[in-house]
Fold each of these.
Amino acid sequence: MRICGIDLWKFCSISMYHIIANWKMELDFKESLTLTKKILQGLKKNRKNDNIETILCPSFTDLEEVGKILKKSKVELGAQDMFWKEEGAFTGEVSAKVLKELGVKYVIIGHSERRKLGEKDKEVRKKVEMALKASITPIVCIGETLEERENGLREEVLFRQTRAIFKNLKLGNKKIILAYEPVWAIGTGHAAKPKDSCEAEELIQKILDEYIPEKKQKQITIIYGGSITSKNISGFIEKGKMLGGLVGGSSLNAKNFLSIINKISKK
Ligand code: PGA
């Protein structure tokens, strides 16, 4: 059911927010473990956060030990990437199967920092398919660069990237998290405005309407990423129509990350 462009069914049926920590290549092994413990301690103190799925994405090499610490908690383990082939002679790549063995439930795919290194829409799509096959929820990133934005290409870029993910995709009963991450907002301290994320959400929604049957759209959650802090997260949730955030810099400090989670507890 749609009123003023808003799919009410979707909003009624999804009650969870997703807050995802992307630690990139910023922490060493010990730092990852210490930060994990601090985040868990902080979450224990806040009992009102059961409407939030918190996900930590450390480096591949830290997944196993971070996973052990998370084992008895409600916080989930995520990876920062994976390969699109099941197994084989692919030096340096990491398979979905290995991630599953380590307890990984989510995987970031198509982050702009990987697209910048050469990852194409086609590879992003293949990784999404492999993640779904392995029952790992993909957190797929899309977003325009500053140049594309200034040249009025935002719509075109979002359309191309979203279509590459969803056209003829066999979603089954699996979930996908779609992160709108304008590249110019990542790691810059200049977050987008809630109005930007709202416009992007409406645009993405239109594309989804074309490629995903309405009854399956509730399996797709749209979140925002790019210079999120505890000061701006509420705007993206309340005005920007986002159901969570992908957090880089602000997730590297337990206090900052926890204050983001606290801001949306029981919203
Ligand atoms: P940022 O990173 O929060 O540091 O901007 C977000 C991301 O890269 O996902």
Note: The CA atoms of residues 57 and 78 lie 4 Å apart.
Amino acid sequence: MKWWQTAVFYQVYLRSFADDSTNSDGIGDLRGLIGHLDYLKDLGIDAIWLSPHYPSQNFDYGYDVINYCSVAPEYGTLQEFRDFLDQAHQRKIRVITDFVLNHTSDQHPWFLESRSSRENSKRDWYIWRDGKQGGPPNNWYSDFGGSAWEFDEHTEQYYYHYFFKQQPDLNWRNSQVRQVMLDGMRFWLDFGVDGFRLTSVDMLLEEPELSDHTVKLTKPELYQAIFTTYPALTNHPNLAAQRRLMFQLQIQQPGIHAIMRELRTLVDQYPERVLIGETDDPRYFGKGYDELHLVFNFPLLRTFHLTPGWVRTNQNQWLASLPAGAWPANILGNHDASRLRTRFCKLEENSSQFNAELDRLFVTLLLTLRGTPFLYYGEEIGMTDLLLSDATEFQDELSRSMYRIQMEDFEVTPPQALRNAASLGRDKNRTPMQWTRAANAGFCPDNIRPWLPVNSNYAQGVNVADQSNDPTSLLHFYRRLLNLRRHASALMIGDYQPLLEELEDCMIYLRSTTDQVCLVALNFSDRLHMLDIPLNFTTAEVIFSSWGREGEHGVVRNLALAPYEIYIAQLS
Ligand code: BGC
């Protein structure tokens, strides 16, 4: 087994994690992160996925890179990155960074050169075309809304951008581009990072003819289609399919797998490094050994109701879709999605009350399904989304533009537009980490304004300090569970076998290796369930329980599973 198969990853959104007191500016930084490495070690994670730390214009917070081989001044210096990496490694914590492949910032020196004249030697590093009939070269859209083409007055041509216009797409068909991007990765591999989360791999190539898409939608439908992955504007049944059609010429084009193989050849020159793709297409595993090491099981989280039926179907389909040699990776939240507790644990649709037991159940699921789990910072203390109620506080450009567009083009009332924009954007799930019950939750001093408002629930126990002192807290639960996982090989690497698949309220499965068999039983409901589990094992020793049953020995067949009970037993 490789380290990245048994590891638990924890995503640190650097800007929001911890602002070091020597440069308090309301922005998280590397020193702040170094100061909390012991916390992460105690939590029991094995690897950090660090959100982009590169100099950036921050239109898309680090996903618009100005220099691939440096550190943004607000986060620190290269020397501080070195300290961070060394200190993480000393604690046996690996570090992977985001690597932004598809586009750069429009302020990157390469793009400044490229746009300076049609004859510039880097002109072809980006995708420049003449307009057609007084408009853009084709009818393609940006994933973030509006045309995917931006006119440049100076050279009178359009450039292509899949995301914001401040993020021009690199031309991956140009061999020099491939070379400089590989050089950028090599820089960090030489530096000692343990791998990369590769962003937007699906979008690297475009259909060469740049043909128009043929989807006909009204403008409101179009906007709903573009944002169909977001709840606020979605109510049209065919939009997801229309959306796929609309973007099909802009994603997953032939040639993409050859690029993946080039990247893999590079990282294979270094021992023990990993490539994780921001995609849910198992074809990126290639033959199982020649493209990416991991891709995300995003389909698992494409629901608002994580039911046993949903999870079982997901597992059955997802595991079956992986080529031989591929290893799964599961995730229930990240910097682009609603937080786990908000999305899946609300008591009722519009309620601000949460079912904390469900929260424990879902993280148990994440940590006991087959595959590498990815946690998102703050989940371990039950942080929730914060919907901003003042548009001037928006930091995510997506919220800003959606707010404007809804009012200008669709005559949505300002309060409604504000609510939609706040839930559509990603500020809600990127608020500062809540460390203590002091002002600003201990993220930065009280006389400093954090870059995003802190969720006020830090004062009601949603903070690390309070939960550290409380053995019944969610944080303790995470620590216990992570500790269990680390010592139970079946939970880390075992096969997955679903049982009693007809049950609507409970999810029961085995994880087994030749040395150990674990039974995981999760009751997603508020009712007691009497289960007759058809197994030939004679005894079950409870190794984890939300009902204090650890150490109990029982017979396997008859199990009374209490409301929301989490039960893990070792069978013999
Ligand atoms: C990131 C998003 C970002 C997008 C475009 C993705 O990889 O996860 O946060 O907006 O790339 O840059």
Note: The chain has a mean pLDDT of 95.
